[in-house]
Recover the amino acids of this structure.
């Protein structure tokens, strides 16, 4: 099945979606890698609010290449997904705290994230790793940037206005399904067999 | 007389642009073949996206991946080539320039002072250099940027020498299975065997520079490469780790002598975007670009 989602994404809409489905997102997506996750969670612990309200929007594991045009506006050079597994250690806490509705990245995520997605109604959309120019093509506008001086270009928060951002393969749904986890189990089973026959 | 240092800088800056925007043609063909031959819709769609993206990169001269990598240069200096330490200075300048002009993502992060924003580390080690001294009056430069995601799945192990070649195979299989979907497959796998704990990783990385489907001149090593290629595809990692399509495009191995008590094995894995490009400069400053 193919779904077109618009932010803020209503949680009930996500319940129809299952692993292996394809989704496209329109609306607001914010980039966040390791350091932005940490900083946002630290601020929350201190009782402060991060500069972006993550609720209902897409959270994109991405460290883009950006440059300023002649008018001094930021433009996207390349913006593809980074390896999401690095975020596994705090993604569940992030979902529970800030309620983004779709995590976009590559490589899939683990049990903790899948559990948080089930409990808090969120999905994971797998964007083809490295396919940055396809992604950049769907980013219509750079809305804002935060923490640039402190965290640098790849790690800071870039707020994008996107249109039909995708195709994203759903590998974690709201029902506890985890496609990359299934694939990993298959890889491990194959490995066991190969090593036995070696 | 040309300013040779300037020629080196210009050439290296161009090489960095080529690596970021254009894949070697054999790899492009391999990925297109992968798309044609993949049956499952999930795998096929991933390869289609990869191939479309490669085409866009080349057409618009833009980086094919946002992770333009940590830069390394493999340099062979002829003993009659006029420059020595200026080569390094020129390559550092080229890295800074390419970071601005291509542009490349600034990827050199100092643990205490943060991102240097120019891909050059403040402690003088990045870009990383592999220097070799050779006969002749030429300078060969190969630029190889490598992304963080696929570097994170690299592995090294000192296996008991008693395990022999079977132990080497087991470790390569373990390493690629552990990489699984994490590092943008289909992969190209470089394996280094022997030397010490550091040398095996160097060899593994160098092995990735060998053109696709050109196997080792030693028949025993070549047959091992082909055997591992076949075995690793049975893991069914698939394009982007979704279980469909090719898992590994090629396997290259390099061997060095080892200490009697050690059997070091290094595995360096590249994502689908195995990027490298080279050129040779003679002592007058004429540049010959390597086939790409």
């Amino acid at each position: 099945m193919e779904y077109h989602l618009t932010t803020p994404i209503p949680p009930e809409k996500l319940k129809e979606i299952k692993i292996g489905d394809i989704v496209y997102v329109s609306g607001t997506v914010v980039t966040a890698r390791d350091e932005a996750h940490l900083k946002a969670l630290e601020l929350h612990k201190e009782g402060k609010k991060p500069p972006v309200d993550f609720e209902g929007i897409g959270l994109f594991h991405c460290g883009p290449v950006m440059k300023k045009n002649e008018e001094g506006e930021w433009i996207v050079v390349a913006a593809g997904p980074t390896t999401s597994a690095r975020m596994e250690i705090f993604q569940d806490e992030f979902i529970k705290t800030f309620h983004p509705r779709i995590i976009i990245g590559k490589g899939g995520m683990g049990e903790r994230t899948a559990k948080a997605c089930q409990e808090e109604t969120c999905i994971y959309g797998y964007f083809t790793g490295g396919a940055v120019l396809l992604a950049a093509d769907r980013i219509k506008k750079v809305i804002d940037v935060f923490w640039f001086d402190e965290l640098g270009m790849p790690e800071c928060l870039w707020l994008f206005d996107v249109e039909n951002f995708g195709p994203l393969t759903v590998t974690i749904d709201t029902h506890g399904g985890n496609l990359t986890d299934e694939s990993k189990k298959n890889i491990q089973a194959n490995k066991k067999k190969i090593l036995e026959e070696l | 007389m040309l300013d040779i240092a300037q020629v080196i800088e210009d050439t290296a800056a161009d090489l960095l642009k080529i690596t970021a925007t254009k894949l070697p043609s054999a790899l492009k063909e391999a990925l297109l073949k992968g798309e044609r031959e993949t049956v499952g819709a999930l795998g096929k769609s991933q390869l289609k996206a990869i191939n479309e993206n490669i085409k866009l990169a080349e057409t618009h001269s833009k980086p094919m991946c946002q992770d333009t990598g940590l830069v390394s240069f493999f340099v062979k200096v002829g003993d009659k080539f006029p420059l020595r330490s200026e080569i390094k200075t020129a390559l550092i300048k080229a890295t800074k320039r390419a970071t601005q002009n291509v542009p490349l993502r600034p990827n050199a992060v100092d643990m205490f002072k943060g991102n240097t924003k120019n891909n050059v580390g403040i402690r003088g080690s990045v870009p990383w250099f592999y220097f070799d001294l050779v006969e002749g009056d030429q300078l060969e430069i190969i630029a190889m940027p490598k992304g963080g995601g696929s570097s994170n799945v690299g592995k090294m192990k000192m296996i008991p020498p008693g395990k022999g070649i079977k132990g080497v195979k087991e470790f390569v299989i373990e390493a690629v299975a552990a990489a699984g979907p994490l590092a943008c497959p289909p992969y190209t796998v470089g394996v280094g065997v022997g030397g010490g704990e550091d040398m095996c990783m160097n060899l593994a990385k160098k092995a990735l520079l060998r053109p696709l489907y050109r196997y080792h001149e030693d028949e025993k090593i070549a047959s091992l490469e082909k055997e591992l290629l076949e075995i690793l595809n049975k893991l069914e990692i698939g394009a982007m780790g979704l279980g469909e399509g090719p898992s590994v495009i090629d396997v290259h191995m390099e061997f060095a002598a080892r200490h009697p008590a050690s059997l070091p094995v290094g595995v360096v894995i590249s994502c689908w975007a195995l990027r490298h490009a080279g050129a040779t400069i003679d002592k007058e400053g004429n540049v010959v670009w390597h086939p790409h």
In short: The two ends of chain A are 40 Å apart (CA to CA). Residues 179-197 of chain A form the longest helix (19 residues). Chain A is about 35% helix and 30% strand. Chain A touches chain B through 47 residues (CB under 8 Å).
